[in-house]
Amino acid sequence: MFIRKAINIAIASSLILVAGTLSQPIYAADTIEQHIQKSIIIAGEAQSKTSLIQRMTEENVPGLSIAVLKNGEIVWAKGFGIANSKTKRPVNEHTLFQAGSISKPIGALAALKLVEQGKLSLDEDVNKYLKGYQLTGAKLSKETPVTLRQLLTHTAGLSVHGFPGYATGNKIPSTIDVLNGQGNTAKVEVVLTPDSEWRYSGGGYTVMQLLVEQISGQTFADFTDKSILKPMGMLNSTFAHKLPDNLKQRVSAAFNVEGNMHSAVFNDYPEKPAAGLWTTPTDILKYASHMQAIMKGKKDGILQKETVAAMFTKHKNNWGLGPELMDIQGQLAFGHGGKNLGFTNDFKALVNKGDAFVVMSNGDNASTLNNEIMTTLSKHYDVSFLEQTVIQSITLNTQQLDAYKGEYLLLTDIGYNGDFISKISVNDGKVTIQNPGDVMPFRLVPENTSKFISAVSGNEFVFKFEGKKVTGLTVAGQFELQKIK
């Protein structure tokens, strides 16, 4: 989940290398698979060359799949490791993973399709369209209604950051039940004045799901299958809760941070556009290339160029109508991360050029490795989606280091259930931080006495002082924590 990830990035045996390539360059195995680049390095510390398989073992990532789009062509797609520890089924380029929040930009296309059909408006009150359910909340008024544009750009001021899913085989709630808080998450409500600020909300995408279902008269899965996925050639993808047999036999199981398969195999997500897409890296590239082609003038795409251009227009926090937007060496790019139970994914693509990378992993502990793969691909294919960060570290004495130790309470509301308290420790002269949910702490490297850099995410941790006493810190320029112990 996006905001949690910014401050809380968590740090298998018998891994089997599986071939499965599309126009694979002869040298890819040597320059990518055998030489994974660290995404963050510390100046002066030795850097060893490491293979992808070795890094998977070190990070407890049982399986992953990579696909690369270069100049409009899928030039490499390959799977590594295992998809299921019981059956020993290997991962290949046809293995399906849960997309997590990558579901959002693809799911958003369904609502945009209805906008083009004149059945839905980007800028009208969504309550005008909803039946049997109405958005409510302390900050909702006739003067400040919630709109579809706000839902898609996370500016509607809605609660419920993300969803934990339901163990496979359990009863799952309806869309309206989820919105009313009758599932395993709180009620989706308007807690900030709409359009006043950016607040990531999977709850907002579940409101969009209900709009699509009620206006189309179909399930979200049926509508997207016929109107979005199949027309883009995404034949190995679905939002369906019950997977068709031809896809079910190729899905990956979910694995925990220790590399063990979850007892439920994987969780189900009734919140379809928020987290419920099953797909492959190659299919995500088909979505990316389809959007790129429309921007270049493709006339028979699923959407018109005007709509796609609006989708790629930056709103608050550099968010488009579905995807996150960013600038890569002067070029507009789009992408999204994805995190479900036992799955960790990332994709990035250029808007006006046919380049894109996708990494999908079946482990809870794959964030660091995914970043390293993105860094390695960026260098190999000369597209700077993720450049290597070099931290210039300073040396602090014992007295200075002791000042940082303690517990820090998050003051920013991120929808976490309970107090979010981070613990900072010092071990062997190195500062580490452990957040709620982390299995192990990760290292913070000092660039000066106030600014530390996460050796995992690259985020800045800026400490506040009163004299020589540390009183708090700011993470990634936006999350405020107060030292409480």
Give a written overview of the molecule.
This protein has 485 residues and is an alpha+beta fold. It has two domains: 285 residues, DD-peptidase/beta-lactamase superfamily (Beta-lactamase), CATH 3.40.710.10; 86 residues, Lipocalin. Helix content is 25%, strand content 23%. Strands 1, 3, 4, 5, 10, 11, 12 and 13 form an eight-stranded antiparallel beta sheet that branches. An eight-stranded antiparallel β-barrel has the order 15-16-17-18-19-20-21-22. Helix 4 packs parallel to helix 7 and helix 4 crosses helix 8. The protein starts with a helix and ends with a strand.
Can you give me a brief rundown of this structure?
Keywords: Hydrolase, Signal. The protein is of the alpha+beta class. It contains 14 helices and 22 strands.
| Strand residues, percent | 15-25%
Shape: globular
Q: Find the CATH topology of the largest domain.
A: Beta-lactamase
Distance between the termini: 28 Å
Mean pLDDT: 91
Oligomeric state of shown chains: single chain
Shape-level CATH architecture of the largest domain: 3-Layer(aba) Sandwich
Alpha-beta classification: alpha+beta
CATH homolog superfamily of the largest domain: DD-peptidase/beta-lactamase superfamily
List the helices and strands and how they pair.
Elements lengths: L1 H6 L9 E2 L9 H6 L6 E3 L9 H7 L4 E8 L2 E12 L4 E2 L6 E2 L4 H14 L31 H6 L12 E2 L7 H5 L22 H15 L3 H10 L15 H4 L18 E2 L3 H4 L2 E2 L1 H15 L9 H7 L12 E5 L2 E10 L2 E8 L5 E6 L5 H15 L7 E3 L6 H5 L3 E5 L10 E7 L2 E5 L7 E5 L4 E4 L5 E7 L2 E7 L3 E5 L2
Parallel strand pairs: 2-14
Antiparallel strand pairs: 1-4, 3-4, 3-13, 4-5, 6-9, 7-8, 10-11, 11-12, 12-13, 15-16, 15-22, 16-17, 17-18, 18-19, 19-20, 20-21, 21-22
GO molecular function: hydrolase activity
Keywords: Hydrolase, Signal
Protein name: Serine hydrolase
